[in-house]
Specification:
By secondary structure, the chain is α+β, with helices and mostly antiparallel strands. The chain has one domain: Glutaredoxin (3-Layer(aba) Sandwich). The protein has 10 helices and 4 strands, in the order E-H-E-H-H-H-H-H-H-H-E-E-H-H. Strands 2-1-3-4 form a 4-stranded mixed β-sheet, sandwiched between helices. Helix 6 (126-135) runs antiparallel to helix 7. The longest helix is centred in the first third of the chain and has 20 residues, at 56-75. It is globular and about 50 Å long.
Length: 209
Amino acid sequence: MERPQVRVYTDYKSPYAFVANKQLFELEETYGVELEWLPYTLRIPEFMGTVEERTPHFWRKVRYSYMDARRFANAQDLVMKGPRRIYDAFYSSVGMLFAQRHGIFRSYHETVFARFWNHDLELDELSAISGVITSLGGSAAEFEAYVHGPARAEHDRIIDDAEALGVFGVPTMVFNGELFWGGDRIDMLVERIQNPQSAAKALGSRYGK
């Protein structure tokens, strides 16, 4: 029997993506799901505005979001320190793609998340991401050649394809063309995996069909 396939879009600078990892990997172990991990690198100013434009209402929402994500982190014994600045996660995102092709994805994925949220890794420094890859047995020279070669075009194509599907945030899971945004939708995703026919009924009732 063919394994259910779920595409997961994630970003290392997202607190909610970080705390969703455990449940997502459990999909493989418990339900035999095949996960396809892809980067969706959030462009912070695009959807949050510049720091100068942000209102008091916005900052209340931000403070709550990090507090809320930290509750999930604490339940998993994960360290989550608030980010010190706005990061461009391009290097870490293409590092994910590189790690997948060199058999070190799971270690890379967990290392980057854990170290970033422990204030032990700068996502937007090429040397820092190269260092992670080297520490896991990969080649920094090959990774940097990839970064300076086809990485940008591949990364941007993945983002464009994600947005064509309707992706706007992380973590987003895609199963049989249906999107599930956020770790609090993983239980609904499990329901779909167990009963794929339920999707047509649920989506039909949503649109009054």
